[in-house]
From TrEMBL:
The lineage of its organism: Bacteria, Pseudomonadati, Pseudomonadota, Alphaproteobacteria, Sphingomonadales. SUPFAM superfamilies: (Trans)glycosidases. It holds the Pfam family Collagen_bind_2. InterPro entries: Apiosidase-like_cat_dom, Collagen-bd_put, GH. Residues 33-364 form the Apiosidase-like catalytic domain. This is Glycoside hydrolase family 140 protein. Gene3D superfamilies: Glycosidases. The keyword Signal applies. GO terms for molecular function: hydrolase activity. It comes from the Bacteria. Residues 1-23 form the signal peptide.
């Protein structure tokens, strides 16, 4: 029988709220850039290319976890979003519970950590190993301490939030590849004191680890917590509903609107779409007989957000986020493909093209600039644009012709090219004068999913 671990020593050690010392890890700690818009890793620009693997800790064993991490690393992902507690009854794959009697203030720990010994390898030992293996793959773990339902049901409350936060921060506060996602698909205005206590406690002990708040669909962390001392960057969930499922004035699929709002806030903080519509999930999640979001939709969400000024993007795939296995009674949202096969969904294979383009240019100087686009369209016809000092990008989801106002970047002449978000290929347009306006017609017929990025470069010697 497993012994219930005591947390008394952890409580005593945490009373002084001593910051954890950084250990030597194969990934550099993240920080906010000097201009407060982007992230850096070890002082170098960092583009967040995230994947959603919410139930990885409870559904996968070591071998499967290693396969997941190696696959996503090879595909260009560098951040993985996971839940530590999905429910108060959370268990690891070997059946070890995370908590004693479902109480976040009483983590269930056992002596030793040998997975070969019966009853020794507990839930937290497994999380230790996952953090370590993610670091070995050069990946960051963005961890949700507790899903929102746990607070709504009062299992996580004001009395035990600081105890649980202290346990987490003292155990993982020295890990350079850990990021905290406070909250968890929940309304920011509900259980505010609980989330404030949890966030403040973790941040007090682990001040150098970045933290945000993961809100419910079609809301943003900035609406409630923008000025919270523990919130380093904003996160919004543009969610899974289509234009047809929302009112005429709702943001719906226009995730770029959240970015624009956050860019206008003070103090300045970076922002990211932490949960757009997942590939292969039905429109609206719970509504029957709805079409599923496809790879082109996943691309559109990613490119729109980043062109609008997001510091990165998180992708999600329905079967992967829940680690679906055929016949599993826990399946949600009409999952239909085994998770390891779904790792190869087209959208997942195409996310790296976004990262590749952004990293090929000076990242920290990039700003959104919709003045580049003349007479812009709405919804799927909208072109999202951003620029640096010597380059500009304009993303068209439908491949419809559009007109660009020139003269916004340096140089008399510009090189113009098309970049494909589908395969990373290039098509030359030629040299153009950097003045007046110019109409560009992307390759192919106008249609949703025939997406292209116009890339304008100033190739002149800046000296």
């Amino acid at each position: 029988m497993m012994r219930r671990g005591s947390i008394i020593s952890a409580l005593l050690a945490g009373l002084l709220c001593a910051p954890a010392a950084l250990a030597n890890e194969p990934v550099a700690p993240l920080s906010i850039s000097d201009n407060q818009r982007f992230l850096e890793a070890g002082g170098k620009p960092f583009f967040w290319m995230g994947d959603t693997a919410w139930l990885l800790l409870s559904r996968l064993n070591r071998e499967e976890t290693e396969h997941y991490l190696a696959t996503r690393q090879a595909q260009g992902f560098n951040v993985v979003q996971v839940m530590i507690l999905h429910t108060a009854q959370m268990e690891s794959r070997n059946g070890s519970p995370a908590l004693v009697d479902g109480d976040p203030g009483r983590p269930y720990t056992t002596p030793g950590a040998d997975p070969a010994k019966q009853g020794e390898y507990d839930y937290w030992d497994h999380l230790d190993w996952v953090v370590e293996r993610a670091a070995a793959h050069g990946m960051y773990l963005a961890m949700v301490p507790a899903w929102g339902d746990i607070a709504d049901q009062r299992a996580l409350n004001f009395e035990n939030a600081s105890v649980y936060g202290r346990f987490l921060a003292q155990r993982y506060g020295d890990k350079s590849n850990v990021i905290w996602l406070n909250g968890g698909d929940t309304r920011a205005e509900n259980r505010t004191k609980v989330w404030e206590e949890l966030g403040t406690t973790i941040k007090c002990i682990a001040p150098d680890q970045l933290m945000t708040f993961h809100p419910i669909g079609r809301t943003a962390s900035s609406w409630q917590y923008h000025e919270a001392p523990w919130l380093d960057f904003n996160m919004f969930q543009s969610g899974h509903r289509s234009y047809a499922q929302e009112g005429p004035h709702a943001r719906a699929e226009d995730n770029w609107r959240y970015v624009a709002e956050d860019w206008a806030r003070a103090p300045i903080k970076p922002t990211i779409d932490g949960e757009p519509s997942y590939e292969n999930i039905p429109h609206g999640l719970h509504e029957e007989n709805q079409p599923r979001w496809q790879a082109e939709d996943a691309r559109r969400y990613a490119w729109w957000a980043v062109m609008a000024g997001a510091f990165g993007h998180t992708y999600g795939e329905n079967n992967v986020m829940q680690m679906y296995v055929v016949g599993a009674p826990t399946a949600n949202f009409e999952a239909d493909t085994r998770w390891d096969k779904a790792l190869l969904a087209p959208g997942a294979l195409q996310m790296n093209h976004l990262r590749a383009l952004i990293e090929a240019y000076p990242m920290l100087e990039r700003v959104p600039d919709q003045s580049l686009i003349v007479n812009n369209g709405t919804r799927y016809d909208r072109v999202l644009a951003s620029r640096g000092e010597r380059y500009a990008f304009a993303y068209s989801y439908t491949g419809a012709p559009f007109t660009v106002a020139l003269g916004r970047i340096a140089g008399d002449m510009l090189r113009a090219r098309w970049y494909s978000p589908r395969d990373g290929g290039w098509r030359d347009i030629g040299a153009i004068d950097n003045s007046g306006t110019h109409r560009f017609d992307p390759p192919g017929a106008t249609a949703p999913g025939n997406d292209w990025v116009l890339v304008l470069d100033n190739t002149e010697d800046p000296s």
